[in-house]
Amino acid sequence: MKSLNKLLPYVKPYTLFAILGPLLMCVEVAMDLLQPTIMQHIIDVGIANNNNAYVMKLGFFMLFTAFIGLIGGVGSTVYSTKASVNFAADIRRDVFKKTEQFSSENMDSFGTGKLITIVTNDVTAVQQALMMTLRIFVRGPFLFIGAVVIVWFTARELFPVLLVAIPILMVLIYWFSSKSGQLFARVQRAMDRVNTKLQETFAGIRVIKAFGRSDFETNTFKQVNDTLTKRNMAAEQVILTLMPIMLFVVNIGVVFGMWMGAIKINEGTLQVGVILAFINYLNIIMNGLMTSSNVLMQITKSFTSANRIQQVLETEIHIREPITPAALLKIKGEVEFRQVNFSYSKNGEYVLKNISFQVKAGETIGIIGSTGSGKSTLVKLIPRLYDPDSGEIFIDGVNIKEYPLEKLRESIGFVQQKATLFSGTIEENLRFGKEEANFEDMEEAAQSAAAAEFINKLEGKFGYELMQGATNLSGGQKQRLAMTRAFIREPKILILDDSTSAIDALSEASVQQALRQNHPDTTVFFISSKVSSIQDADQIFVIDDGIIEASGTHKELIINSNVYRGIYETQKGKEILSYE
Ligand SMILES: Nc1ncnc2c1ncn2[C@@H]1O[C@H](COP(=O)(O)OP(=O)(O)OP(=O)(O)O)[C@@H](O)[C@H]1O
């Protein structure tokens, strides 16, 4: 309930619509409530006295009220929809904006599957809850109270029937609603699992096919889908059983009403029309109670969704902007790590342990080490994708936490291990690196990244459309484009995280040469599992189990580092070592 309340400020810009919706609904309900009484008068006054003119007059009045009711109903739908759809759109916008600010750690803790479910399903659930509240919430109680009051004034003789029927109906609704509330919570959890499974399958469809696991995946999807179906069925069945039981109670009420009415008619204290109107009101009362309980159920269902939305909106961003940012000169590219420790889990198990080093501007640093040793993690700390648990990182002698985040990241070009490209043209993807890049910039960067040749062969060249996930490019082409995108922004610090793994040795050498020639002042961190890719670096860091096991030039490390020599030997063979 609390989290739903916290979303109420999102209704504020649409207050007028949110008032008009229920207001117009009141008009519709008032007209609905008038109908049985008009009918009663037609029967008891018009038909009983053979007064055709009276029948016609009230007949037209009945039509008129129905028409006004229609306008009220349509108007209410229009304004309630405007309020709830805009309310949801604003929440979606803010959830999206918030996730854009998320640090990698925040992202890790939610997971993309859950975030997508929140932006789609959960926002839709609160939208529906608001829509129903605005449109129907007033309708239920208004119909119920209105009908009870009218029966009190027009058919008091039959009121005892209501005194028995209403408590029974209320108990039934309470029991069924609480039962279905629990069942719908189970439905929502099953829905989460279906969504997660779908996202995972769509993202990994190629792997599934390559491993011939389609049947297995179809089966696991069938399991989560079956659970969802069963739970949906159970929840719907509860709702659907309620209606006939309530109708049964109402019909017993009708029989009793007619029986009591017949006695009163015989006594001459009641007219036929009153009984007919009473029967109608009894149905209206049932409808009113049902509608109220439906809305309550929808609102209860939306609590979980509101909670999840609130979790995103209230998430504390781990990577914060500095309170007093450093006065900015142009970043040169000196990098220093001072006793840096880092862990993903924050339980003290460090992935990086006591890392300290200094790099001069314009130096090329090779980083090598076994898989999972912490190489990628180390470079991710430079653009503050994560912050260290302890220790400090400096660029040009200034703690990186003191730079405005945007400024810091603007001066860093980062090519991640897995090249991420977006659907759109190559040009659009490159502009991601530098908005104002012109054609020459693109050409030049593509040359440096050994991408120009393949781009020129593509239909439309820089206008070539990439599909989602750039599936219409090869692995090596994706890496080259990702490098072009990083080169184009002429960064002061360039991080290449195993970004030449799918590129042939010749092209890799040409990329390295282009870097030296065209970007001599850029500090380059070059992660690679191949010694041949980094052996010309000014300094090489050998990472082993989260520590810098050794550092130095290739020649120094061959002599001083067992780990480095081990890697080198496995890759080149001992005979080359002795030859060197
Ligand atoms: N987002 C994450 N959450 C939790 N643990 C992580 C995360 N990313 C990496 N790790 C763990 O941190 C350790 C270091 O990972 P890292 O990616 O830095 O290794 P690496 O040396 O770059 O490996 P590789 O050469 O295989 O890319 C690994 O044990 C890995 O399982």
UniProtKB/TrEMBL annotation:
Keyword Zinc-finger: no
PROSITE patterns: ABC_TM1F (PS50929), ABC_TRANSPORTER_2 (PS50893)
Molecular functions (GO terms): ATP binding
TM helices/strands, residue ranges: 12-34, 54-74, 136-153, 159-176, 238-262, 268-289
Limits of the ABC transporter domain: 335-570
Domain annotation ABC transmembrane type-1: ranges: 19-301
Topology versus the membrane: Multi-pass membrane protein
Keyword Glycoprotein: no
Cellular location(s): Cell membrane
Keywords: ATP-binding, Membrane, Nucleotide-binding, Transmembrane, Transmembrane helix
Main localisation: membrane
PANTHER family, per database record: ATP-BINDING CASSETTE SUB-FAMILY B MEMBER 10, MITOCHONDRIAL, ATP-DEPENDENT PERMEASE MDL1, MITOCHONDRIAL
Protein name per its UniProtKB record: ABC transporter ATP-binding protein
